[in-house]
Amino acid sequence: HTGNYQQVKIWQQATAQAPALLDRALDPKADPLNEEEMSRLALGMRTQLQKNPGDIEGWIMLGRVGMALGNASIATDAYATAYRLDPKNSDAALGYAEALTRSSDPNDNRLGGELLRQLVRTDHSNIRVLSMYAFNAFEQQRFGEAVAAWEMMLKLLPANDTRRAVIERSIAQAMQHLSPQESK
């Protein structure tokens, strides 16, 4: 039973430390959390969210922590919960779409792609949405869609934006995959 006691003690410590760890994670001047601290933060946040399951921002933050840890199930579950609570919350929708498109499950990838298409339709001036949509389309070999999204981004970005060079290279790469009829 000492193993169980140790696990309970770790859980209680994580729950107690979560607010301070979250403050540190959100403070750009503070030292970044290491992986063990991120894991404790995730455990503490899950406990807090059990007590307050309607906390959309908490679920979004847990999704971000899950992504940072490379834990797809934490990220996907947290973002899915936030999205179910408020489908109009762009952070929840975009986080959920990103988690789905990074999944190893092709069905998740398809759902993520559909969600991204929906997000682009409702907000085609959001650079993050367009970027994620373009890269997802490229990965799914929908090169024409990728090019269209990247071209939209170029129209929205200022002339001196450093991301333009990467986008232009991405367009050139996608254009190589298009048939001559598609690239006209």
Automatic annotation (TrEMBL):
GO terms for cellular component: plasma membrane. One of its GO terms (biological process) is cytochrome complex assembly. TPR repeats lie at residues 56-89. The keyword Hydrolase does not apply. Keywords: Cytochrome c-type biogenesis, Repeat, TPR repeat. Pfam families: TPR_CcmH_CycH. Residues 7-164 form the Cytochrome c-type biogenesis protein H TPR domain. This is Cytochrome c-type biogenesis protein CcmH. The lineage of its organism: Bacteria, Pseudomonadati, Pseudomonadota, Gammaproteobacteria, Enterobacterales.
